[in-house]
Design goal:
Blueprint (H helix, E strand, L loop, with lengths): L2 H22 L4 H5 L9 H19 L8 H4 L2 H5 L1 H14 L9 E5 L5 E5 H25 L9 H14 L1
Antiparallel strand pairs: 1-2
Helix pairs in contact: 1-6, 1-7, 3-6, 3-7
């Protein structure tokens, strides 16, 4: 993975998450928090899980930041304020990356304290793929409550970016 590809993927995941948050904003609090038998119980819980993972990997990869309890990252306020701000930090970090950085080994500790390490390129791919998996779950639950989810395909993002560039 090149540094340019990393930037593209990080921007994509922020774009897709924002589109999904905008769709979820149309739901009532009851619909957002209703148990839906998905991996993190509810729409809001699943979005909070993505936010939590994004924050953990940022802290491991870029700079140590406070990791509040997951419940605090699942609030509607955190999802609409803290998460987009964290995404901007990821994007700013990505702007500084070089191709050589992509093979840097990221050393970290799992939540249970066990040490781990992963090349930065793989961390970025995991970050994006993890979010994509859980956004898909949220999209399925949106359909269950009668809401058409937004398009969040990677190719749609690329086409939108190309059209914006062409428009100048």
């Amino acid at each position: 993975m090149t540094s340019q590809e990393a930037r593209t993927h990080i921007r994509y995941t922020g774009w897709a998450s924002r589109r999904l948050l905008d769709a979820v904003a149309e739901l009532s609090e009851e619909q957002r928090s209703k148990g839906m038998q998905v991996s993190h119980d509810s729409i809001q819980g699943t979005l909070g899980h993505i936010h939590f993972a994004d924050r953990i990997w940022y802290s491991r990869t870029v700079e140590r930041i406070t990791l509040p309890p997951m419940a605090e990252m699942c609030t509607w306020e955190a999802l609409n304020g803290d998460w987009p701000a964290l995404q901007k930090r990821w994007e700013t970090y990505a702007e500084s990356l070089t191709d050589a950085d992509m093979e840097r080994t990221v050393a970290y500790k799992y939540l249970d304290g066990t040490p781990g390490s992963t090349p930065l390129s793989q961390v970025i791919l995991h970050l994006v793929n993890h979010a994509t998996l859980h956004r898909g779950q949220v999209m399925a639950t949106l359909r269950q409550v009668g809401v058409k989810p937004p398009g969040t395909d990677f190719i749609s993002y690329l086409r939108e970016q190309a059209a914006a560039q062409a428009a100048g």
